């Protein structure tokens, strides 16, 4: 099974592509889709959709795991994040990829064992578990890898874990 983890943002969207085979994870790719702060939001959304489309075409994931939306104190930021998430979800839907959402806490708990772990802790654990050099994991991709791992653990966990699997978005 190939799982695409996505940590949505308008300027720097992290992604991680994991293969789950015989209960073992391996990294296929991870990185970021970046947009300049000078670009208008419409261009960022177009580029974000194009980047997701390219990832799907290249890696043919069986499922995608995204970070659940959260409401911060700044409504404008929440709206912009919602636009980015919408562009990603629409692109994945066009490609027929089922999408699942997990809270950052749940993904970090699955990856590190601590839902309040810092990005740096998640990066260290991902590097160790996935047998990668820490420097090869962009910091913005760490949560995306954790999201993919969280989904994979639930899928591979059998009937007992299937109850914890979220419904497709």
CATH superfamily: Ribonuclease H-like superfamily/Ribonuclease H
Q: Please work out how many helical segments DSSP would assign.
A: 6
The whole-angstrom Rg is: 15 Å
> N- to C-terminal separation?
19 Å
Largest sheet strand order: 3-2-1-4-5
Instruction: State mean pLDDT (0 to 100 scale).
Output: 90
Counted beta strands: 5
Supply the number of structural domains.
1
Proportion of residues in β-strands: 15-25%
Helix content: 40-55%
Order of helices and strands: EEEHEHEHHHH
CATH C-level class: Alpha Beta
Low-confidence sequence ranges = none
At the fold tier of CATH, the topology name is: Nucleotidyltransferase, domain 5
Describe this structure in words.
This protein is an alpha/beta fold and 169 residues long. The chain has a single domain, classed as Nucleotidyltransferase, domain 5 (2-Layer Sandwich), CATH 3.30.420.10. It contains 6 helices and 5 strands; from the N terminus they run E-E-E-H-E-H-E-H-H-H-H. A 5-stranded mixed beta sheet has the order 3-2-1-4-5, sandwiched between helices. The radius of gyration is 15 Å and the shape is globular.
What's the gist of this structure?
With 169 residues, this protein is of the alpha/beta class.
Task: Please name the defining characteristics of this protein.
Nucleotidyltransferase, domain 5; five-stranded mixed β-sheet; 21% strand; single chain; 5 strands; alpha/beta; 169 residues
Layout of helices and strands:
Layout: E1 2-7, E2 12-21, E3 24-34, H1 41-59, E4 63-67, H2 75-94, E5 99-102, H3 104-112, H4 119-129, H5 142-156, H6 159-162
Parallel strand pairs: 1-4, 4-5
Antiparallel strand pairs: 1-2, 2-3
Helix pairs in contact: 1-2, 3-5, 4-5
């Amino acid at each position: 099974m190939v799982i695409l983890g996505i940590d949505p943002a308008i300027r720097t969207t992290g992604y991680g592509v994991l293969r789950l085979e015989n209960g073992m994870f391996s990294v296929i790719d991870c990185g970021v889709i970046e947009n300049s702060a000078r670009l208008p939001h419409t261009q960022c959304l177009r580029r974000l959709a194009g980047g997701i489309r390219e990832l799907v075409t290249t890696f043919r994931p069986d499922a995608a795991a995204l970070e659940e939306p959260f409401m911060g104190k700044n409504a404008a930021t929440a709206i912009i994040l919602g636009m980015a998430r919408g562009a990603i979800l629409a692109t994945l839907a066009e490609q027929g990829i089922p999408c699942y959402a997990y809270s950052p806490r749940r993904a970090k708990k699955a990856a590190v064992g601590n839902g309040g772990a810092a990005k740096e802790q998640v990066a260290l654990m991902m590097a160790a578990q996935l047998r990668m050099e820490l420097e090869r994991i962009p910091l913005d991709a760490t949560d995306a890898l954790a999201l993919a791992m969280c989904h994979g653990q639930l899928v591979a966990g059998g009937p007992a874990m299937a109850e914890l699997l979220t419904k497709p978005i």
